[in-house]
Every structure is written in C-alpha cells, then in structure tokens.
Amino acid sequence: MRKSEREVFGDAQILEMLLRCPYLVLSIKTEGAPYCVPLHFGAELAAGSPAVYFHCANEGTKLDLLAKGGEVSFCAANLLRVFNKGAVPCGYTADYESVCASGSARVVTDEAERLHGLNVLLRRYAGGEFAKEAFSEHALAQTAVVKIEVSRWTGKRLVRE
Q1: Which of 47, 63, 65, 132 would staple 28 via disulfide (CB 3.0–4.6 Å)?
Q2: Of the candidates 58, 59, 21, which has an alpha carbon nearest to the alpha carbon of residue 41?
Q3: Which runs of E-coded beta strand occur in the chain?
Q4: Residue 80: is it exposed, middle or buried by C-beta count within 10 angstroms (0-12/13-18/19+)?
Q5: pLDDT tens digits for range 91-143
Q6: pTM to 2 decimals?
Q7: How many CB atoms lie within 10 A of CB 146?
Q8: What burial class does residue 4 get, using C-beta atoms within 10 Å of its C-beta: 0-12 exposed, 13-18 middle, 19+ buried?
Q9: Which residues contact 95 (CB under 8 A, 6 or more apart)?
C-alpha cells in the first residue's frame, strides 16, 4: 500500500469497514478478462477467519466460473464525503473506506451451512435471523449460497476532521 498511514489493521476493524460498504464487486478469474459483478453480501469472522457470503440463482456465469477453480477477489468502498479544500477543481478530495480481498469461493451444499450463510446476509439487511421454517422451500431450492473464505484482505481509510 503506497500510503501506509491510511492502512487499517485487524480483522475486526476491516470487517466493520466492509459491512459499512453498500455492496462489493466480485472478480472471478477467466481465460480472458476477469469477470466482475456487483453483489450484496454478508460477512463475519468465523473461527477467527473472515468469511463472506452471497446468494444467487442455481445457474449462471458466476457458478460456471467458480466451478473451474474458485479463485476470487473483491473490493468494496464507502464514499464518506466529497469536499473542496480550495477554490479550484483540483482542490476536490474525498474521505473514504475501502477493503480489497482475495480468497477461495465455493458453493455451500450442507443445508445447515446454507441457512447460516443466508442468515449472515439477513442479519446485515433485515437486522435479524430466521429459522429454517421461515424460508420458502421453493425459494431455497432455487438459491445457491456461496462462501468466500478470505485468505488475504487489506483495509484503507481516510477521514479528515
């Protein structure tokens, strides 16, 4: 990181920053250009390791590419404010938080782990967890849950008074 004074250390702090970001952009390796797609997500520290969950349809480009290896990276950013430090266009700057990560993604097949992953997402967006009975069997049958086991991540923040 070029501006090391902006680096955020510690899994708990990086997770907090990530969860403040509105979405992440997932990048999956292909034979050509990387495949990138914005996603809603949930994240947690599971047994001390960062894990990110997302859900999608049971078929499609994401799952086809993940089946070929599962190497992924993602980034997420949160623009906190834009302001002008001077009277000229070059005086504009921004305060922000960002997280960049890489890891291995896999489709979750164990039913208990699938429900856990969905609840990680729901905690973030709905503010709570749901019992298995609350989920539609039809919807669950059409939903894939993917877990990214993060092997490396960095956080960066700039907030000025």
Answers
A1: 65
A2: 21
A3: 7-8, 24-28, 35-39, 42-46, 49-57, 71-84, 92-107, 143-158
A4: middle
A5: 788 899 999 999 999 999 999 999 999 999 999 999 888 888 888 899 889 99
A6: 0.90
A7: 22
A8: exposed
A9: 79, 80, 81, 83, 158, 159, 160
Helices (H), 21-154: 61-66, 111-126, 137-141
pLDDT (tens digit per residue) in 39-95: 999 999 988 899 999 999 999 999 999 999 889 999 999 988 888 777 777 778 889
Place of tokens 């994401």: 62
26 burial level (CB within 10 Å; 0-12, 13-18, 19+): buried
Domains annotated on the chain, with CATH: 4-158 (2.30.110.10)
Residues 29, 69: contact at Cβ < 8 Å? yes
